[in-house]
Amino acid sequence: MQHKFIKKLLTILIVLSTMSILFPTADTYAAVKMNVSSKTLYVGNSTTLNVSGTKKKITWSTSNKKIATVTSKGKVTAKKKGGCTITAKVGKKKYTCKVTVKNKTLTINKSSVTIVVGKSTTITAKTTPSATVKWSTSNSKIATVSSKGKITGKKKGTCYVYAKGNGITKKITVKVTASSTSSTTTTVKISKDKVVCINPGHQNKGDSSTELNGPNSTVKKAKVTTGATGVSSKISESSINLAVGLKLKTELENRGYTVIMTRTTQDVNISNKQRAEIGNKASVCISLHCDSSTNSSAVGAHTICIDKSSSLYDTSYKLGLNVINSYCTATGINSKGVVARSDLTGLNWSTVPAIYIEMGFLSNPNEDLLISSDSFQNTMAFGIANGIDAYFNA
């Protein structure tokens, strides 16, 4: 009896096995899988996820509908910045996709410009994700703007130009001044008191040979170092200092200043004493630096002025205070104020008001990525230039 039962059971198994070969299910042909395991979306944008290899019913769900929703067809819509998980359930199996939602952005390189009647300047706008930027003016009789952001002065006055993209609007204040001459060439008279030296701190390779720390000092220090490196960006401090310095040069020249640069490339070998001596040919000297700390949570910017024992302390402090206030207002970076120091070669050899500005911490992951961003560096230069304006106009 037991023998017959076993024989009958084996026959059934053989039949079932044969049927599975002759008539396979849809899931047999291909492995069930979702088309992507991760996806980045911007607020308001959508994408459709797919599960292949099955004809079974798919049930979709989201771990956080405030960040992203999903329909019964797998259409995912980004709602607000954050992260969540989209799950597709097929039978007892679950397939997931991690969704990251980012805010759309629109950045411009300048928030205000001054141009002469008949002259033009171009505002650069950057969108993320890439989108068309539409330009408009509040008064076309004063200034017009092209579809590429080129602003042209028409008559003396002030108006606003608007850049709109990704649902964001940015306003640029446009001041148009009368031409000082009927000639096609505009000559700008520069006061000898408005000469600014920009010293982008450090360089590509340091020089460990030494020089005196100051004219009345017996202490010797390395001539110049390479500086810090961004903890996230991996960009050298000397590169960031130079990038901001070149943008600041353009910004100041557009405002009517004469600018002296201690360096315009990375591959130089100029000591801190030599940089101070170059700066002494100007009215003021601004040295650009980035901060670093063993404490990765440290953030903020500050300026360093000439020591209190110097006759240049008062004017140096005034310059440092104006620059740090304007810089932090423009960038939103936390201000750590002004400090006076007597140990910096570049300040000790100065015979004109001089400061260092520590623009932010490369040792902080977020602040590093901010100040190493090309578009944000335009804002940094704009803020420093505002501080220089404030110093000279006080």
In short:
With 394 residues, the protein is α/β, with parallel strands linked by helices. The chain is built from eight helices and 26 strands.
Description:
The chain is α/β, with parallel strands linked by helices. It has 8 helices and 26 strands. A 6-stranded mixed β-sheet has the order 22-19-23-26-24-25, sandwiched between helices. Strands 2-9-8-5 form a 4-stranded mixed β-sheet, with no helix packed on it. Helix 3 packs across helix 8 (374-393). Mean pLDDT is 89; it is low at 179-192.
Quick one: biggest sheet? 6 strands, mixed
Rg, alpha carbons: 31 Å
CATH architecture of the largest domain: 3-Layer(aba) Sandwich
The average pLDDT value, as a whole number, equals: 89
| Biggest sheet: strand arrangement | 22-19-23-26-24-25
Q: What is the count of structural domains?
A: 3
Strand content: 35-45%
Q: How many helices does DSSP assign?
A: 8
Proportion in helices: 25-40%
The name of the CATH superfamily of the largest domain reads: Zn-dependent exopeptidases
Shape: elongated
- Alpha-beta classification: alpha/beta
Q: What is the CATH third-level topology name of the largest domain?
A: Aminopeptidase
CATH class of the largest domain: Alpha Beta
What is the subunit organization of this protein?
single chain
Low-confidence stretches: 179-192
| Count of beta strands | 26
**Cα-to-Cα separation, first versus last residue:** 112 Å
